[in-house]
Structure formats: C-alpha cells, structure tokens
Amino acid sequence: MSKKTLVIGASTDPTRYAFLAANRLLHHGHEIELIGKDQGKIGSKEIQTSKPDIESIDTVTMYISPKRQPEYYDYIVGLKPKRVIFNPGTENPEFEKLLAQNKIEPLEACTLVMLSTGQY
User: Which of 21, 31, 90, 93 is most buried when burial is the number of CB atoms within 10 A of its CB?
Assistant: First the structure.
C-alpha cells in the first residue's frame, strides 16, 4: 500500500540519508514530496524550498535537526499526517508531545530500516 510521504531535509547529495530515503521510497512505490534548503530534483520530483500546501500526506519523515524543527511545527500539524518519523539525530521530545496532542503518531525510527524490513 502506497503511503504519500513528505521528506523534510531533502537533498540532492547522494551521501545524505534523506537522498537515500527519497530514492528508496520511490523504489518501493510510494509517492513523495520533498522540502529542502536547496532546490534540485530527486528522480522526477522537485525539492521545494517553501512550505507548499500538500494534500493527503500519510507520513512525514524528518531529516533536519531539532533546532531547525520549530519553524515546521504548525506546518506539519496542519498537514494532518498519520505519523511523523524522527530519524536518528532528529528526535525532539517537545515536537513529539505536540504531535501526540494533535493525534499524530510520533515515531522514533529509521525510514531506511523500516523500508528494508517491510515495516513501512
């Protein structure tokens, strides 16, 4: 089952986990949206540098540090995803609590591991 996923912290750098995750999501048949600090493309998808209005997001996967996350709190809550994955190094108890209060599942996990083990 395809899960439309927003990758925050997307990068065209092939050594970055966000790049690997975006490609792996595409490979597994998931529709992706990308937000990053620099424009570019991953596959045929453009990396947005703003906070576009996106419909029907199932999952947000975080690849930005906790100190950069507050500017995304209201945006992500407003998208009403089912869950937000905090990849290693992005864990943020303050944001996780806010998500839970808004009935959005915070999940400290690794998108790449979840995809490779069939848990995504």
Answer: 21
